Amino acid sequence: MLKKLFGFDPQKTTVKTEILAGITTFLTMAYILAVNPAVLHDAGMDKDAVFTTTILSAVLGTFIMACWAKLPFALAPGMGLNAFFAYTICQKMGLSWEFALTAVLIEGVIFILLTLTNLREAIVNSIPMTIKNAISVGIGLFISFIGLQSAGVIVDNPATLVALGDITHGSALLSFIGVILTAVLLILRVKGALLVGILITTIIGIPMEITQYNGLMSTPPSIEPIFMKFDASEILTGKMFITVLTMLFVDMFDTIGTLVGVTTKAGMLKDGKIPNGKRAFMADAIATTTGAMLGTSTVTTFVESASGVIEGGRTGLTAFSTGVCFLLSLFFAPLFLSIPAAATAPVLILVGLMMMTPIKDIDLSDYSEAVPSFVCIIFMPLAYSISDGVLLGLICYVFVNVLSRRFDKLPLSIYILCALFLIKYFI
User: Fold this and answer.
1) Where are the alpha helices (DSSP H) in 127-223?
2) Which residues 6+ apart lie within 8 Å of 20 measured at CB?
């Protein structure tokens, strides 16, 4: 039954491993329960309603990924895309959140059509293997950077952009303690080391007054204020076209980057292709479309899924376990939100390390491979964007190899992609 439902293979994994991996993934991305409502509230949306919708959209998308694509990836409203929704569309452009939700709906429908035509899968298959390896490494640095930021280890600085925070007390100190403890658990090969590390760090945070118990249960708020609230009056305008196009590029290559990077690290790529790739992209597209109906920004595959994969998750049972945790959080939100960012940050930092192993498969002595790979890797954390890392890495790959007259490495499809990426940046 588990094999039929989730692609579970007892020769390669165990039920315990998959469930622990799913819980670990949930805990590393549970911050979205607090952050997404806060961000979309700045767009004028009802904060309580967005909380419920965030969970419902995550549950739906993750269950589709689990049962149909049978892959260990979780979905939820994406960071970056929700900021674009609130701060660019609604605040900077002065448009309504109903307009923004309409753009998300159109984006989701377009993604469904693109997936049905196999275009998204064809794009993934066109990406050179060296860039696929680089994506995994870049995502590793990006995840670590997210963890360091969330714990206050790395803070903003007007002179240098980033700087080291105060690591002698508070969240930053707790996160360092968590890194050391979790590393020891990994060295001792403790089963579920990442999850155990989160729980122990959370407990240590109690006497440090960082872990705050918020209660056990709460009643889910109604989604009525934001459910199916669309504005069709500006569908054919230039503003809608630009908004949808931007969302398409960011979401498409965030998702492609995440799926390629995490499956590469897990050794799940088959002849350079993502297993059940079309179904994974369809799960993402359906989740975005239904998420817009429920009342949230673009739903996407979360890069934090890497934490579950590192913990041993390989099948849809991992994603299903994550989805169940999200469903429980609908009623036990105060308990889950008691886990501080400083307790999940160590896992993100160490997962970043683990995601870097494919760098050994990049031929650093061949500059036609090494330079584009480095561009892909370095721009993910520095531009704070998986999609920009993928796009700039591929653009660099094409130009470096064309000017070096290594035309045999470049199929027609990669020229087309490069042209589209250049249009994205220069028009």
Assistant:
1) 129-150, 170-187, 193-204
2) 191, 192, 195, 311, 312
169 secondary structure, DSSP code: S
pTM: 0.80
For the purposes of burial, counting CB atoms within 10 Å of the CB of 168, is it exposed (0-12), middle (13-18) or buried (19 or more)? Answer: exposed
- Tally of CB atoms within 10 A around 167: 14
For residue range 107-129, what is the model confidence (pLDDT) as tens digits? Answer: 999 999 988 988 878 887 888 88
In 3D space, the residue among 76, 113, 84, 65 whose CA is nearest the CA of residue 303 turns out to be 76
Q: Helix (H, G, I), strand (E, B), or coil: what is residue 214?
A: coil
Residue 145 phi, psi dihedral angles, 5° rounding:
-65, -40
Query: Is the predicted pLDDT of residue 90 greater than 80, yes or no?
Result: yes
Give the DSSP H/E element, type plus range, for residue 299: strand 299-301
pLDDT band at 290 (very low <50, low <70, confident <90, very high): very high
Average model confidence (pLDDT) across the chain = 89
The DSSP bridge pattern shows strands 299-301 and 154-157 to be unpaired
